[in-house]
Amino acid sequence: MRPTPRRRTVLALALLTVSLLGPSAGSAAATPRTVAPPTVAPGVEAPPLPALLADTGGARQLLVATAPDTRATRGTLTWWERRADGEWRARGRAAARFGAGGLVEGSHREQGTNTTPTGLFGLPFAFGNDPAPKGTHLPYRPVTPRSWWCEDNASRAYNRWSEPRAADCRAEESERLADYPVQYAHAFVTDFNYRHPVRGRGAGIFLHVNGKGATAGCVSVPAATMRTLLRWVRPGARLVVGTGGGTTAVTRY
Asked: Which of these, 38, 121, 140, 208, has the minimum number of CB atoms within 10 Å of its CB?
């Protein structure tokens, strides 16, 4: 039935009221309420990265290599120092490269996969084809034509510096360090699979100078960064390798 003039007037007023109030909560056309994100209190700073780690190994110096995810071959290396008051302070930052196969949890790594192991590692000593920069604090071994890193799983010298090459260490399964004058101009040995080697897990995981691209499992940085680190790192420093999140997040180590 067609509305009468009075009814049309009442209906118009009702529609005007609804339009001013907006759709009801039960209406299909209702839109969710937007809640503004909480604001950060002025003057409050995020804690430094080392303070977020599960373990620092008691180190006063930390090198933290972080990749966006496990498929990445590039990321960032930052280095930190813990002051006498317990506060961590950033000391430097540089671009870093990882294995061509990405990153993997260190305890699950398999040799020959070109993956960089994640975890918390010590730095037993440094070495290089070039002389140690003045002010180097870690023990430093100069590379000679007879210097090898044994990666032969069947050798008693597995995952060890071998000079000369051990009789039971096959050359085709190992690295002659002098053959890499650029990458091993300077390097730190990490103690990944070093203290109690597990055959097949991997050998020769270093922090070294960049080559042409991704590594075979090591972490690499520019040559100038390596020289800076050699002068800065003291015995007891640790290297942490991880990703920005997930099961290999750097904060888990």
From this structure: 38
